[in-house]
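Now for a sample.
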Amino acid sequence: MGADEEMSKEFKLKPMKCELNFLSKSDGSAILSQGETVALVSVNGPLDVKMQSQSIEKSTLEVLFISKGGKPSVGDRYKENIIRQTCETAILGSLYPRTAITITIQELEDYGGFLSCCLNTACLALLNSGVAMRNVFAAVSCALDEAGNIMLEPTKQQLESTRAIMNFVFDSREKSLITSFTEGTFSEDTYKEALARCRSASDLIFAFYRDIVRKYSNVI
């Protein structure tokens, strides 16, 4: 058993599958499945934008989330905000002043870990679009069960009986924490342990990115 297989077994990450250039009418797109959870993301831009929406210092980033039900909710706005803040840290927006970049996320299947799946799909779609980035990023989710055990990438069924849910996003260079969003109650030590385990697990996601980019580079 190789090192990647041993790490995958230890962290029990869901199997990942991805297709780039999924949508023909976008500048970049990706469809990603993490287990049974599936997200589709398209990127358009940099594009010309109306004067009142322009920034003279950087591009204007817009994130649109389309839920499976089609009706926008407060939760959808929350997802948009998290994804926009995360992507803004990675995109070199100063290279594209007075323009707009639009990221559209579509929910296809949610069987747990959906927001993390959306973030990872967005990163792959940005890579596919050719937008300049400071670094790529990877999101890992975990949950704390009633016994206090940390479960990486919990299923929808496991999430129904958890004390807390924690999500972390790391950059590819220093594995620094870019974004953290949590629900529930937990101790500081538990948070630190979850952070360390998710940071280690992010190595597998970055390795997956490299394999996907290498695969499509060979095709081109």
